[in-house]
Each structure stands twice: as structure tokens, then as C-alpha cells.
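One such given next:

>
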Amino acid sequence: MIVSTRGRSLLRVMIDLAEHAGDGYTPMKDVAARQDISLKYIEKIMPLLSKNNYVEGVHGKGGGYRLTRPPEAYTVGELLKLTEGDLAPVACLECGAEPCGRASDCRTKPMWAEFHDMVNGYFDKVTLADLVKKSMKV
């Protein structure tokens, strides 16, 4: 599996924040209810988003989180890399991987490298705004 539950949940939270961007700060209890994700689980994701300046938060009454940029300025690729690190399909293509002793003779490495480029290229083209538009079409 390329994308973990954490990565999928992060995307759902970000889509929800994008859909409610005009509402100011969105309480995470509201996101949890709409997305059917436990509030405790969301609270483990939000510091990652906040620390990397993808969202900003306010505590207390009227508090919650909001996006720091417009939805079209976020790519799925950058968001998934927060939780997944690298989207490499095999260990030898991961960022900082030890060189494989079979790399020069590996018949499958070019295939995996092309797949890696396709996946990353696709996710780097899809924006949060695209996902909001697609989720609105029912």
C-alpha cells in the first residue's frame, strides 16, 4: 500500500478545511463528525500540518484551524509526503536508500523508476482545489 490511513485521513481533513475555508477557523470536532474520523486521531495529524505551515490554528472559543494558502496552492503530492515520506514503490528508490548491489543488473529497476515518476508526477499535479471540485460533484 503506497498511502497509509494517516495519509488518507490527512487529505480528508484538508479537503474539509478547504470546503469550509470561508467559515473562518473550523473546529476539529466538526471535521471529525463530518469525516467520520476520531477527534483523537485528527489531533495527532494537526501538529504535523501546523508545524509545516499548511494550517494555522487558534485555541479557545471560536477556535479551530484554517488553511494558510488557497486550496489551489496545495498539491496532493506535497501533502502525502508529510505522512508517507517518499511514495517510492520499492525500497531502492526511496530517498536516501542504500545503493543496491544489484542495481546495475536489475531488470525491474527501470520499470519501478518509471512507475515512481508517474505516481509522483500525477500527485504533484492534483491540487486540493481539484479534490474539492470532484467531491462536490455528486
User: Anything to note?
Assistant: The chain has a mean pLDDT of 91.
